[in-house]
Amino acid sequence: MSEWDRxxxxxxxxxxxxxxxxxxxxxxxxxxxxxxxxxxxxxAAADAALAAAPDMAFTxxxxxxxxxxxxxxxxxxxxxRQILDIGTGIPTAGNTHQVAHxxxxxxxxxxxxxxxxxxxxxxxxxxxxxxxxxxxIQADLRDPAGILAHxxxxxxxxxxxxxxxxxxxxxxxxxxxxxxxxxxxxxxxALPKGSHLVLSHCTLDFSDAETGAALREIYSRATAPLVPRxxxxxxxxxxxxxxxxxxxxxxxxWRPHIPPTKSHLSRVHFYAGVAELS
Length: 278
Fold this sequence. Notes:
278 residues, alpha/beta, 11 helices, 15% strand, 8-stranded mixed sheet
């Protein structure tokens, strides 16, 4: 199954390695985007999140639009020809490789996700003949060394040449006790000069405390918690990088095609930025 053949998931045909009894953030995100690759537990949790924060779906779509703009930037303007996309989620319209290949079909893309469901769909996508320069591995962001040493990553990515590292809507699922800053540093240290970091992250800087508490409670029952962070906390992940204009900003303000309205801004609860390693 892929985004070119999307039908409701049949639980009886799901691999045993996939736990459908607990909500998973990737499948909840798929639900926010209107996808069908999710289960009852995911939908119940996502509906609860939408009841607490009705703009969650709008934020998810805005984040997807940022991904499109950022990938076009690193491919077309920065000239990057290899992309490591960690925490990619379930394939949907406008995947990283699709956007990049509109710029240059030779760009190599490696997707990384810890959800077996992602591999089910991504492998179908590869089998559909749309792969070639695109591959997918199951690995966890919490183990950056394992990602960097993975044979498929080493085969696809030349770490002597600039790489675009995508950490889009993923670090807010890493607890402080799991040292997200150290994870980013380990990945950064493997990259050569000229590489780029593309990052977006959930925040409560534009929300009230009650909403934040409700969302944390809902995601505490999922396979990964939600850990919103402040602008200063998120900015620290760019240590060692030089932010490109306009910097780390409210997500809709990152190089929009059309300037966002105040109403648009008020509905998005992410920061986003792109930076170069120099």
